[in-house]
Design goal:
The structure is a homotrimer of 178-residue chains. Chain A is α/β, with parallel strands linked by helices and 178 residues long. Chain A contains four helices and 16 strands. In chain A, the strands form three sheets. Chain A has a seven-stranded mixed beta sheet with strand order 3-6-9-12-14-15-16. In chain A, strands 1-4-7-10-13 form a five-stranded parallel beta sheet. In chain A, strands 2-5-8-11 form a four-stranded parallel beta sheet, with no helix packed on it. Chain A is globular and about 45 Å long.
């Protein structure tokens, strides 16, 4: 229950349009997707892979957000809008991460095993960004809208574009290819 | 009723695949989304914020198009395909605007109050474009597919890329950063 | 029936997370979308355009994948995730093509008649890519995530960015504007 109180507090904090707990529980698909994922992830862990996948796909139908049951998600994930999000089987998401609609944490087709990204604590991923492959996004970094990230991103940086370049690092403007 | 006759005429004009009024009313999610938004916007205005938001989220589930009840939308908006569209609370859209699927009129997280864009009359926003922040898109301008627009755009221009640059202005080819 | 055995084998081959035929039939929206499209395409061919469009829109609601009934699709199309895909009326897709979520095979508004792309055999189109206009994507080429492709693409090439450039051709690194 604490986990859900945490999540509702997160939504109140992050969204200027969020008003009260009841409205958030009913009206925020991101909340529903995380709720379904906790169930699917547990079912997956005890080996019922078909049922886990079915819960995940039911959640995709209801919320537009597709999270593979195997994905590992930390505390207080804030999903805004959410429609079109895809999170792959071996993705790992830390605490206090913000993910907007149409973000993909996906694969490149080159890797086996761990083939999706690891997102460290406090990262924000803006709408439409694609983060692909077994890469690591350093803590508190920001990924710009529609960016395509294929390499590791250092912490405390802002990356934008296709392919994504670092345009800010530790608060200073830079222009560094990854 | 006039408003809906207007909208149907718009869809017939804009889409070479649109055939007759009945087919448009049944088969075009953009029509449904605008219909739900008119209701949600009215309910929001009279202060029933939870119910307004609920209608908006029901519309998102049925159409894949998410329009905050507070958003202001002009006449003859043409939404093509529509899935993945997000329009924020303080966005303002003029008349005769065309918006394709996966377009976001969103915020950057830096602003309070008016934090979403203003789209002037006759603007076309192509699929996947993200228009973010309290900026103004000048009348009759075109925003290219997957563009990311973070600054004001002059009227009669075409902007493309990440971040978006002006590549056409008043019919002449140019290359201007915003 | 053979067509569906083909499709299930394709999904097993392409997705490391796909386990068995039953799970694929139930849990893969790409399968459902292709199933609905085969029906809609047939209904469209015999002239029942309204009903064909209705089946297509029902499929969009259930799967998040919008394929116009008129589109021509070859054998063993693999649609991964799929949410947000839009395929236009005059698009033509060859055999063994792979299309990820949020891909658009759309129009530019400049053409009449054949106004959507032709995708040759063995092409892979990554998530978020927009392929627009009456253009041809050569066989076995790859289109990068969030790329915007407005011109013909040679076969055996990799194209990325906005607008898309060729970065690989016949296995060698290149940098060629289209």
């Amino acid at each position: 229950m604490n986990a859900f109180k945490n999540i509702i507090d997160t939504y109140k904090l992050q969204d200027p349009a969020a008003t009260n707990a009841f409205s958030i529980i009913i009206n925020y698909p991101g909340i529903h997707a995380i709720f379904f994922h906790r169930i699917a992830h547990f079912i997956n862990k005890i080996g019922l892979k078909f049922l886990a996948r079915f819960v995940s796909q039911l959640s995709r139908f209801l919320t537009g957000i597709e999270i593979h049951p195997g994905a590992t998600i930390g505390k207080r994930l804030f999903i805004d809008h959410g429609n079109g999000i895809v999170i792959g089987e071996t993705a790992e998401i830390g605490d206090d991460v913000v993910i907007f609609h149409q973000v993909t944490l996906g694969g490149t087709g080159h890797d086996k095993g761990k083939r999706h990204p690891t997102i460290e604590n406090g990262v924000t991923i803006s709408t439409g960004a694609k983060v692909l492959g077994n890469i690591r996004i350093g803590s508190n970094s920001k990924i710009g809208a529609n960016a395509v990230v294929l390499k590791n991103v250092p912490k405390n940086s802002t990356v934008v574009g296709i392919p994504a370049k670092v345009v800010k690092l530790n608060g200073e403007k830079v222009n560094i290819s990854l």
